[in-house]
Design a protein that fits this description.
Helices cover 42% and strands 29% of the residues. The chain has 2 domains: 149 residues, Immunoglobulin-like (Sandwich), CATH 2.60.40; 90 residues, no CATH class. It starts with a helix and ends with a helix. It has 6 helices and 10 strands; from the N terminus they run αββββββββββααααα. It is elongated, with a radius of gyration of 26 Å. A hairpin with a 2-residue loop joins β1 and β2. About 6% of the residues have low confidence. By secondary structure, the chain is an alpha+beta fold. The strands form 2 sheets. It has a 5-stranded antiparallel β-sheet, with helices on one face. Strands 3-10-9-5-6 form a 5-stranded mixed β-sheet, with no helix packed on it.
Length: 262
């Protein structure tokens, strides 16, 4: 092949986008994933973070929300993405991260580009294998130098950014959190009440929630190699179900007692 043709091809290839870095563009908004840390194929400890540098040029305020995917499906359980804070119009770069509190393997990271009202306007995707496999690591992984620099810049920028709608996405999760916390004392009262006043078959049925709640409480104290926050999270998710079970038991019993009385 003549040298001038080879030189032309090399120049042409230099202008092609890096296949590892994602680029998105809509009217008035241009975004791209400029860097990531660690490299694909790494294994992280629970709560350790996968960092992404996102560069943007925009005419409107933006938010960035991360999600981990495996085989095209989003993994929500244990997912801990960075807050989707507001970035004002203009050009700049920001730091976003994704972490998991459970054993997880992903093969794709998706970045949803949102406007100030949490409406999705664009999406970036990058294929990379990352796994979270160990409950803890002897010491935290040292991120790349640009991570600390972007973290400092973001912290400084957010001090001067007013977010008119900061909690829209999180309000649903906050509702379920407080609902779960509210059910704990109600469940404990109803469980003691059931053991005290129910007899026979009804008493045996009322013991069923204890079979799951008591071991979970013991595991929360012992840990069994998992972070305490994980067991507490399981407790919060289990209490509403235990309370609902006892309510159904009492409803059925009261209904049967009324029919027998008639």
């Amino acid at each position: 092949m003549p040298k001038y043709i080879l030189s032309f091809l090399l120049i042409l290839l230099s202008f092609l986008p890096n296949p590892e870095l994602a680029v998105g563009s809509v009217a008035g908004v241009s975004t791209r994933i400029a860097a990531f840390d660690p490299a694909p194929g790494e294994t992280l400890g629970f709560y350790d973070k996968l960092y992404l540098e996102i560069d943007y040029e925009t005419e409107i305020p933006l938010r960035f929300r991360l999600a981990g995917l495996r085989d095209g499906n989003e993994i929500e359980f244990g997912s801990m993405p960075s807050p989707a804070t507001l970035h004002l119009s203009g050009d700049g770069e920001t730091l976003a991260w994704l972490s998991f509190s459970t054993a997880t393997r992903i093969d794709e990271v998706r970045v949803d580009v949102l406007d100030s009202d949490w409406n999705k306007i664009d999406q970036l995707g990058i294929n990379m294998e990352i796994a979270w496999h160990s409950p803890s690591t002897p010491e935290m992984r040292e991120p790349a130098p640009w991570v600390a620099e972007l973290m400092r810049k973001d912290r400084h920028k957010q001090e001067f950014v007013f977010d008119p709608n900061p909690q829209k996405e999180e309000s649903v999760y906050d509702f379920f959190f407080f609902l779960s916390a509210f059910t704990i004392p109600i469940y404990l009262f109803l469980q003691v009440h059931s053991l005290k006043f129910l007899r026979g078959r009804w008493r045996e049925l009322s013991i069923v929630p204890i079979i799951s709640v008591v071991p979970m409480f013991v595991f929360s104290l012992v840990g069994l190699g998992m972070d305490l926050r994980l067991w507490v999270m399981f407790m919060f998710r289990g209490m509403p179900l235990a309370l609902l079970y006892l309510i159904v038991i009492w409803a059925v019993k009261i209904s049967k007692d009324r029919k027998s009385a008639k």
